[in-house]
Amino acid sequence: MATVDLKDVKKVYPSGFEAVKGVSIAVPDKELCVLVGPSGCGKSTLLRMIAGLETISSGTVAIDGKIVNSVGPTERDIAMVFQNYALYPHMKVYDNMAYGLRNRGTPKDEIDSRVRATAKILELSALLDRRPRELSGGQRQRVAMGRAIVRNPRVFLFDEPLSNLDAKLRGQMRVEIKNLQRSLGVTSVYVTHDQLEAMTLADILVVMNAGLVEQMGAPLDVYERPASTFVASFIGAPPMNLLALTEGASGAVLADGTAIAFAPREARAATLGFRPEDADVTFNAEAPSGALVLPALVEAVEPVGAESFLHCAAGGNRIVVRVAGRATATVGNQLRVVAKAEKLHWFDQAGKRVG
Amino acid sequence: MIGQSPLRTVIAHAVLILGILIVAFPIYYTFVASTQTLQTILRPPLPLLPGDQFWNNYTEALFGGVGRIGGVSVGRLLLNTTVMALGIAVGKIFISILSAYAIVFFRFPLRMVFFWLIFITLMLPVEVRILPTYKVMVDLGMIDTYAGLIIPLIASATATLLFRQFFMTIPGELVEAARVDGAGPWRFFFDILLPLSRTNIAALFVILFIYGWTQYLWPLLVTNSSNMNTIVIALRKMVSFADADTQWNLVMVTAMLAIVPPILVVVLMQRWFVRGLVDSEK
Lengths: 355, 282
Known about the structure:
The complex is a heterodimer. By secondary structure, chain A is of the alpha+beta class. Chain A contains 8 helices and 21 strands. In chain A, a hairpin with a 2-residue loop joins strand 11 (241-248) and strand 12 (251-254). The longest helix of chain A has 18 residues, at 167-184. By secondary structure, chain B is mainly alpha-helical. Chain B has 14 helices and no strands.
């Protein structure tokens, strides 16, 4: 029904600041694309350019194959959910939802049936006569969603819609947004700085940094094969352990002097990484071959319930290791951290993935 | 106050009552005088209780016409002043809300120049530019017209700045949400900006209506015909230096009538904008 195609999109502000430095993304029909990155990476600017709220300095934005660079936000037939909801404070919930339809000259009875149907989906039927200030944060969020859904647009745009909610509600709404998006089948672009939201919602995950796309792909692919140290440290909680390497006589050497013979040549003077859950701890002295073995000192233990995180000093760095259930190790224990060779990630001096 | 003793309550009330007396007594005394015959007023002391001439004096002033001001009735004066005060208040709000809207929400060349031009007019009150303005009014044939009374006073830098400050507090997301919802500039203005400005408009209306009602210098210049006088001017004209020439009872009636509309506006609008303040709490 609708695709969104960005081709080499750039945004340069009059001050000369380049917020987006050439981004190309293709969002297929009915899929949800999540733009994730730290604040200031250009993800919101990019979204606003898709919405038509921000002019495009160069490159093209196409919706359904038609370039919309010079089309206003109204004619693009998109709906946007804002971070602060941006509900009209003087209008009732009903009018908030009906406003967009009225502006498009939709007949009154159709507006009524669509608003009521949408309110039913979002469980807002009882609140239609309230004003935004009489609603809780979660309810306002729903109204903002309703205002987008009721229009039945070609594309949904979400600008960090959950960042003002508390953790529990956020988890709930995340599932709801995913279900709604899937059942309505509307192509969506979603901006967030929360990697958990990004991982769980995305069909296509786009990791952005400093105005550029660092990596794009299915969420689990990005998780399993991060293209750079930036992606590796941004996606995943706790983030991937990254250890600095120097080139030694026969392979790479960690900061504490541990030599790693099987390090690929390009990564020898750069970075080694492994995920907290890809490592094990052992008190045994013998080391399995073809694995990274690091003597480690436990500095802190974080029991979360189903799992525990051991914060250790190892290889001249701080690392985190995830162990299932209760941790047997306690603070001050000397142990070994073992990570299988195939679970290791290698990055070159530019921070790019090797192998 | 914490730990109120009866003595404190008594003192507090005494002070308040004294304050009210000081403020209200002259007005009450004016009212008393407006219900007496001219003879009673001219022969002191003036009684403290209203006399029996209420009906006579008020009907004579309102509908009869007063000799010293060219036989114009106070009713006519009230009409003139109301038209002028309403014109000034509504006109000022209309112009300043539109200019503030342009300055805050639109990007156009020389935007800041226009803003500063408006700002600079703050330094040019009516009195400073009164001669050139008078000349322009004469040339345009606006002497002795409502337009002549209203238009030169309509531009308001203060109100423009006030609306500008308020508009700048409206979150950008709200503007963008409206754009995505298909609201063009006019729809945004009428559907969103105007309803949100209700309280500001109400407050400004009160201030500007009273400003217009009490104008003295400009109406004095621009009206020659007694028919176009405002109540403040007429009040001044009714008072002669020779006591005997002045119909003090009618002067008092006119004074009483002159303060009624501003009081009405304050009382009615105050209730309205207090409600508005409570309503718009976010």
